[in-house]
Amino acid sequence: ALSPENAKLIFDFEKKLSGIGIAPVAFQTISPKYLKINFVHNKTSSELRVDPSIPADTSLEYLFSALRSQPFSDLFANTQKKLLYIDVRFSNKVVYKFDEE
Question: What local confidence, expressed as pLDDT, does residue 82 receive?
C-alpha cells in the first residue's frame, strides 16, 4: 500500500521532473531508503535513485546541480550516450553511470 507521504513525494517528483523534461514512467519502492524512478533518456530506460526520507526538494536540488555541472551536463545532453542511472541518495553527492558502449 502507498502511504500518503509517499504518494505526495511521488506527485512532487513527477511534477518537478516533468518541468525539466524528465518524464517519469514508473516509481518503485526498493527499500525505506531507496525509491527508484524510471524515465526515458535518449530512447532507453534510465533510473533516478532517491531516498524517500530526504525531502523531494533536496534530492531535486542535487539533481539540478548535477545537470548544470561538467562533465555530467555534456554526457546527459549527448544523444549517443545511454544513461543507466543517476543516484541522488547521498548528501551533496550525485553518482551516475553511463553505458560504456
Answer: 95
Residue 30 has pLDDT above 80, yes or no: yes
> Is the preceding peptide bond at 71 cis, omega within 30 degrees of 0?
yes
**pTM check: above 0.85:** yes
**CA-CA distance, 93 to 88, in Å (whole number)?**
7
Asked if 23 contacts 38 with a C-beta cutoff of 8 angstroms, the reply is: no
Grid cell listed for 56: 523531494
User: Is-contact 51 91, C-beta < 8 A?
Assistant: no
Q: Which residues of 30-57 are buried (b: 16+ CB within 10 A; e: fewer)?
A: eeeeebbbebebeeeebbbbbbbebebe
Of the CA atoms within 13 Å of residue 25, those in its CB half-sphere come to 9
